[in-house]
Amino acid sequence: MTTKSEVNVVKGSTRRKSLRITNFFKKLLGNWSGFVGFVIIFLLIIISIFGKQIAPYDPMYTDFTKKLLPPLTEGHLLGTDQLGRDVLSRIIVGARVSVIIGLVTVLVAGTFGTIVGIISGYFRGWIDVVLMRIVDVQLSFPFILLVLVVSAITGTGLRNIIISLAIGGWVIFARVIRSEVLAIREKEFITACVATGVKRSHILFKHILPNLITPIIILGSLQIATYIIAEASISFLGFGVQPPAPAWGNMLSEGKDYIFSSWWLITFPGIAILITALGVNLFGDWLRDTLDPEFVE
Amino acid sequence: MKKYVLPIFLLVVLFILTACTEGTSEQPGKSNNTDSTTNSSGNKVESKKDSIVIGFEADAGTLIANTDVNYATDAQIRNIYDPLITRDSKTGKYIPFLAESWESLDELTWRITVKEGVKFHNGADFNAESVKFSIDYILDENNGSFYRSRWANISEVEVISPTEVEIRTSVPFPGLIERITGDLLILEPGYVAEVGKDEAAKKPVGTGPYKFVEWSRDNYLKLEAFEEYWNGAPSIKQVEFRYIPEFSSRLSAFLSGEIDLFKNIPVDSVQSVEADANSKIAEVSSSRINYLALNTHYKGPLQDEKVRLAINYAVDVDELISAILNGHATKMTGPLSKINSNYTETTDYSYDADKAIALLKEAGYAPEDITLTLDTPNGRYPMDAQVAQAIAAQLQRIGIKVNVQVNEWGTHLEKIRNREMKDMYILGWGPAFEPDSTIFDLFTQNAPYSGFYDEAIEKEIVEATKIFDNAKRKEAYNKIQHLLVDTAAWVPLWQQGDLYAVRKDLKFEPRVDEEIKVFEMSWE
Amino acid sequence: MTNLLEVNNLNICFRNGKSITQPIRNVNFTVRSGEILGIVGESGCGKSVTSLAVMGLLPPKSSEITKGEIIFNEQHIEKMSEKQLQNIRGNEVSMIFQEPMTSLNPVFTIGQQLMEPLKQHKSLTKVQRKERIIEVLKQVGIPRAEQIIDEYPHQLSGGMRQRVMISLALLCEPKLLIADEPTTALDVTIQAQILELLKRIIAETNMSMMLITHDLGVIAEMCHRVVVMYAGSVVEEASVEELFDNPLHPYTKGLLKSLPSQNERKSALYSIAGQVPRPNELGQGCAFANRCEFATERCLTAAPPVFSVAQHKAKCWLLDETVGGVFSE
Amino acid sequence: MLDFVVKRSLQVIIVVFLALTAVFFLIRLSGDPTALFLPPDTSREQIEEYREILGFNRPLYVQYGEFVGNAIQGDFGQSLRSGESALGLVLARLPATFQLAFSALFISLLISIPLGVLAAYKRNSIFDRIAVAATVVGQAIPSFWLGLLLIYTFAVSFSLLPSSGGGSIVHLILPSVTLATYSIARFTRFTRSTMLDVLRKDYIRTAKASGAPTGSLVLKYALKNSLIPIITLVALDLGTLLGGAVVVEMVFAWPGVGRLLLQSLLNRDFPIVLAGVFIIAFIYSIVNFIADILYAYVNPQIRVK
Q1: ipTM confidence
Q2: What residues contact D132, with CB distance under 8 A and at least 6 apart?
Q3: Mutation test of the interface with chain C: which of D210, D223, D297, choosing the one with the most C Cβ atoms within 10 A?
């Protein structure tokens, strides 16, 4: 996603700035925290693609004779877990799960939420009322509980987790996009289009949609961290991506029982999540500050 | 007006805070009573304590007896209510408790003689009437007892004299004593009638060693000693059960001295408890068994006996016990544990990879061609998910690929009941003292949690459950055990090693039936 | 007449990241007691920045007065601490802004907002404060002043809000009133009323006013003297009559020519070709040279000094030859 | 005003009703709970018998109709496990939940608003940068991780505070701090950005030009303007604090609604789940309702209309 951060010139909207690849890096280099965020995300993506090649050991390989080795023993940089698997390797390979959860959920929730938001904001009327009531209903139920209920129904596993998170997460997109659409609709250039008889679909796709890309990107980048942490939380409660698949959430969840005996099992995956969320948030903040300083979640 | 908004808001907040906390404040951790000394880790420990705090994973569902089939409920209320019959804490043998004796008059009638002079907490006398009332309470549909299904064979309970009661069954029911021991606790008829069952469920009255004091849902249950207890006044006067769902928090509470005892400490945390100067570990080989079901209800390679045998050879139970459970389990070779009344020794398929591969070839499989699914709950039994992963790794060694599927507990059970399980799954069973339930409920075609069916064996099982004569019964079950082992119905794993984290100066003997009887405990 | 405000050789720099721009270069002008000084120029010429500098309202981190002095009532504004400035603002110098719609805080009533400067600067009792507020509101021609003080800005029309803004500025009877495009955002009919009001108030009190506008018509109507600014510098300074009758600088001439005249119905309006250079585009020569039809080689290479003809000053090399005025500065 | 109240009340009812309906059907998809409450040696026939008693054998729409009929009268049925009134069980947990949520909210507001205001006021200073960095970290920490860390530090290592359980103020400290961490971060960031936004506004310049001292400028003028969006956000998040504290309640064994709901979900104790959903949705709607009134209180533009 980072390499494609080229954003269309925002027509008619003065508060937003355009960002093209050429000055993307120039601007990024000028901002310390944005740059750190970008580097973290970049590394994370590399790790999640080439995790299996980078990992020093097979993350699934169990060796009972080497269980619960502390960090820096017998070639295990971050130690081993209760089945003698290499913690570092599991964190590296587990990155993929977090990246997939973050990105795919944002994609699914974002797409669905955006469609609802556009329909609601553009067409107004009864459909807006109905959709916004649905949004209200869902918002009247805390995100994490909703995800739990849905997980209890759909069952565990990566796909189901993403479905649950997306079901819990689309509303925020719907709300934000709706209000953006409402704001854009009132802009003079849209009025001008309507006045000159431009077709509705044309207005929607050529004029309104491009103006939504910036808020979608900003909101999406800020939501990714939320999803990654939420997955860890529902893992903690027993619903997340289940072992033996290496994922940070279930590593933490399994590791928490060892907090007194083998601190590294809960420490390192936790730090991994923290760094990831930090990176994504820093980058998201920077995107917002650069593209649209007045954007409010 | 405006300038008062903030102060008023603050006051309201403060008010809520104090209102919610009223009367329950207690300083962190350490409980009341005198003579504090400071030990090595800085915790204050009372030299003459007469109170105890016991950590539990979950709250009791209700405090009325004979209703909720749930370990947490049962273990707690057994300190308030007494059973008629209990078990020896080590052997699991029946011991009369409120009952003096029992006998079966014929195949359909049992007579139970009960103790005299026992009093309920409210002063009422315990007698045969209370026994009848308690059984009838289970049987009455309106009371919504989940035990009723087990007592469906009871047709009538009749009070013969103040100390004698007769129980009649509709079919021969050799398992009645097991039911009385496992399920039945004695309620006070007068009290329940007086306050109603809803109130009695919140403020229970029994004949047990402890009286009810206070119950704060999902928080704690407080009891105090019943000085007129028929078995003598309890040594520990104040009991608090505190509910801490999360293990790491429970262990934290224990290590910081807030709780004195809790059950089910993960094997890998044993060391941290032992390392603590104030703490010790108590262990008992429980009556609860864990096994790997080789599901024959599912159309797959495991319907083939040879493949099941091969799996038995390929899974190295000894290694699992030593490597995963750190030795905290007792190996089993058949469907029943040694505690079980009708246990017989069966063949031990020890680890033999070559034999396993050979058996698979005989059955027409190359190990590499087989992919199996292994379902497991997570956190229900000691190290269950880890054991499943380890079994998968062991089978992988001979080339069988195993996909481990971890289920949420409710889903796990539902998959078994709905026959949606695939090749293998891990399940526990217990407390299992008698063969009937274990054998009948796990190896017959229609039993909800069964994972095995063989027509010939089922016939034997159905016959066996009807036998009254102990010797014949034993013979029949011995045969069944051998049959089940020979057909490799399971990979039997082990009796769970029940591990308790215990305050060092607490005299505590863990019981095979998993009960936590504060009456039996004392401070040194 | 004494000088109430003297701005001498003022230079202001803006910093944005690493880039530095200098929107104000060597600005000189004075405001005398009781007079209305007009500052005129196109947008971006530095009028507003200058006025903010006089108020000490320049953003503290990103801007800096690099050279020069601002002397108000014999005090150096540029050397004052924030605290001292607070005592002057709204009290001795006050300001009216362009946007009456957004310049009043939407969550406070008019009365609450008018109360603040009085609390800040004057020691009056609550009752006295209220009396003063109502007095000023009446002075600026607000009917039902007693009710208005309990209303919120959004309940008032634009003209009324600007009157409130004016009363806010007048509350403490300042010596200098800075009006930054006070009528630009208003309807034409309201504009005239507001200007009339300001003029009347200046006449009634001993106040001076600095009127910033891009509208020469307003200047002609209101001011005693005029300062013409272009690209961060003062290019011409004269009395109103002098400036309109005898403009010296080509830029001023251009401005005057582009005024629609009532008696000549020309087919097209005159406009000055080209655009104002941005502060970072300024070179060595005269800032107006690229748009000036009389520009010579010298204009491109050297900045012109100030030439004075009596009280009339202008910065243009043309004066060197045609008028032969006195080289000052 | 009355109009507004009636309209909003109607909205609350609709939202709560729809939420209940959705959860009712969703939860039925998660399976039949009957067997979970029975001993494992119960036969299929007996399970069936219990299903009949509990009413799970009837068509879903019949069950739904009955549920709605009873719910309207305030009856959410009995807990399948204990037979007690489901609504009563949920309401009994409410004080603990309120206690935790409000003290977390209190802590968050107490810290985040001054922090956000100060960060905005001292924009780009070292203080601002540290504050912003801290909020980013605060939002990135999984709460159970933080909770365990706090227990480990304050309860076990230093024996300063109790590790878990409900009851006194001291028991409240760790869970409310844990729960507040995320809100502190969120509110601080939000306060900071709205303050920055407000400080750029023309009316702030006006106030400055009238000689308002910096302190009163920030605290009196800008803060009141910033409060409008902050109130909306707080109202939105209070719902989360009230019902979404499951993780914190589990870690700290806090006897609140979230934990009850999670346990009931795991136990498939449907009546409790539905009663819990009802209470949470209801409270959430009420909170938003109050927020709207507060909103009008600080925003005269809405009030007058």
Answers
A1: 0.80
A2: A285, D119, D189, D192
A3: D210
Residue percentage of chain A with pLDDT more than 70 = 90
Beta strands B238-243 and B220-225 are antiparallel
pLDDT, tens digit, for every residue of A112-136?
999 999 999 888 888 888 888 888 8
* A251: three-class secondary structure by DSSP: helix
Beta strands in C33-101 (DSSP E): 36-40, 63-72, 75-76, 93-96
Peptide bond into D255 cis (omega under 30): no
Q: Which residue type occupies C128? A: Q
Q: Which fold has domain C3-92+172-322?
A: Rossmann fold (3.40.50)
The reply to whether B242 touches chain D by the CB within 8 Å rule is yes
Residue D13 resides in a domain: no
Q: Report all structural domains of chain A as residue ranges with CATH numbers, in order of start.
A: 30-56+82-291 (1.10.3720.10)
DSSP secondary structure, C48-89, as one string:
HHHHHHHHT-S-TTTEEEEEEEEEETTEEGGG--HHHHHHHB
Instruction: Check if C186 contacts D (Cβ < 8 Å).
Output: no
| Residue D225: closest C-alpha in chain C | C107
Q: Which of C99, C97, C104, C116 lies closest to C152, judged by CA?
A: C104
The string of pLDDT tens digits covering residues B413-440 is 889 988 999 999 999 998 888 888 889 8
Q: Find the CB nearest B152 among D46, D47, D152.
A: D46
Nearest by CB to residue A140, choosing from D15, D145, D156, is D15
**Contact (CB<8Å) A237/D262:** yes
pLDDT at A234 (0 to 100) = 86
Residues of A in contact with D143 (CB under 8 A): 233
Q: How far C200 CA lies from chain D's nearest CA (Å)? A: 22
Residue C114 structure tokens: 């008018």
For residue C106, list chain D residues with Cβ-Cβ distance below 8 A.
203, 225, 299-301
- Beta carbons of D140 and A145 less than 8 Å apart: no
Contact between residue B79 and residue B208 where contact means Cβ atoms under 8 Å apart: yes
pLDDT at B35 over 90: no
Quote the domain boundaries for residue D291. 86-302
Query: D265 contacts in A (CB within 8 Å)?
Result: 148-149, 152
Query: Has residue D74 been placed in a domain?
Result: no
The reply to whether residue B69 touches residue D37, judged by beta carbons under 8 angstroms, is yes
For A141, the closest of D156, D193, D281 (CB atoms) is D281
- Give the total number of structural domains in chain D: 1
pTM of the model: 0.83
Q: What is the pLDDT of residues C151-202, one digit of tens each?
A: 888 888 888 888 888 888 888 888 899 988 888 777 888 888 888 888 888 8
Q: Which residues pair with C29 in a beta bridge?
A: C7
Which of the given ranges, B237-241, C50-54, C111-115, has the highest pLDDT on average? B237-241
Q: Is residue D114 part of a domain?
A: yes
Contacting residues for C317 by C-beta, under 8 A, at least 6 apart: C286, C296, C298, C299, C302, C304
Q: Cis bond leading into A244, ω under 30°?
A: yes
Nearest Cα to Cα of residue B29 among B18, B45, B49: B45
| Residue at B226: amino acid letter | F
Q: How far apart are the first and last CA of chain A?
A: 20
pLDDT above 90 (res B282): yes
Phi (first) and psi of residue A252, to 5 degrees: -65, -45
CA pair distance D146, D154, nearest whole angstrom: 12
